[in-house]
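fwd from M.: "can u put these together and see what the complex looks like"

so here's what she sent:
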Amino acid sequence: MTYCSFCGKEEADGDHGFCRQRLSMIDPPRYCSECARRMVVQVTPDGWAARCSRHGEITSAR
Amino acid sequence: MTAAPEQIDVLDEAREQVLERGVGLTEAQVLKVLELPEDRIPELLALAHEVRERWCGPEVEVEGIVSLKTGGCPEDCHFCSQSGQFPSPVRSAWLDIPGLVRAARQTRDTGATEFCIVAAVRGPDKRLLSQVRDGIKAIREDGNDIQIACSLGMLTQEQVDELVAMGVHRYNHNLETARSHFPEVVTTHSWEERWDTLRMIRDAGMEVCCGGIIGMGETLAQRAEFAVQLAELEPDEVPLNFLIPNPGTPYENYPVVEGAEALRTVGAFRLALPRTILRFAGGRELTFGDLGAKQGMLGGINAIIVGNYLTNLGRPAQQDLDMLEELSMPIKALSQTL
Ligand code: SF4
Ligand SMILES: [Zn+2]
Ligand SMILES: [Zn+2]
């Protein structure tokens, strides 16, 4: 099961075109794609880091 | 028989009043500019650009910003994804000192002269102020001489004095919108409280940075009202944001400001504020895309935030620096600001 990291709903459920557009332009991920938990996100001038309490950290560098 | 009084064109008036004499437009005049038909926007932008060159010069001030304390704010500003009062997905986070030093270094490396440290709070407490103090010290120990600005909400006189002592040279505190519209946007504090903080900052000798957000349901008349209220404050800098409708906030379904309307606003604000540093801030990516950013730079804007914002992402800094080079606009150097 994967979840949309913009809206937190199941990827298979509904249209996430708008979400993908936002993620490609101005938004870091907010929800963990593995469990849909809200992540703690730190934006810095040249990147971001997002941490799920269960699945660890992802960053813009990866 | 008396002839009907000839309609004076607002851009002709502006040419004489703003460009030649450096006197900003009145509220009624700003409203006329905001109501100009779309086919006159190029003319407006060209004039606003001339005004900016005449009264501010060719340099562009580049700034980077970072969120020291994100989310969980007790206030209810309806546009803000960091308010703890709305079901926004933004969670609380604190940036540590090494992270702050890295952010300042990344900003300096772009050639920026300004680094703004921001916290999502009603006003700073002791812990936040000591974090800022330690952060500034660490940035200096890193050999970074970038000018430091702060945006930490409403201040007491004592806190203003502390920030001055830390060497903070500019303070950002946005009035956000017209006084008449503010109660629709924020209910947990007043426009007047914000104004009081701004007066204290000015009186303490810090530079005043004060702007707002366009597209929060204000009328064109309120937009004009706002431009003139800002002019009355005589801020050193005005950051112009366009609403990003963020999920979970009361404004999540508001439309994005259209490009043409945004450009009209840029031109009108420049004509109301001929000598101010007018900065492109958040929302420009959504409102303009890549093309409009250039039009804005040629329409009265003379400062930008490069890189990411607080909770939203911007274009990569290099893309904006390339744009400035393409436009042959020199970046303001640190030596010019000291
Ligand atoms: S005071 Fe600042 S951080 Fe808090 S809700 Fe208002 S805009 Fe957001
Ligand atoms: Zn989605
Ligand atoms: Zn997870």
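replying to her w this: The mean pLDDT of chain A is 95.
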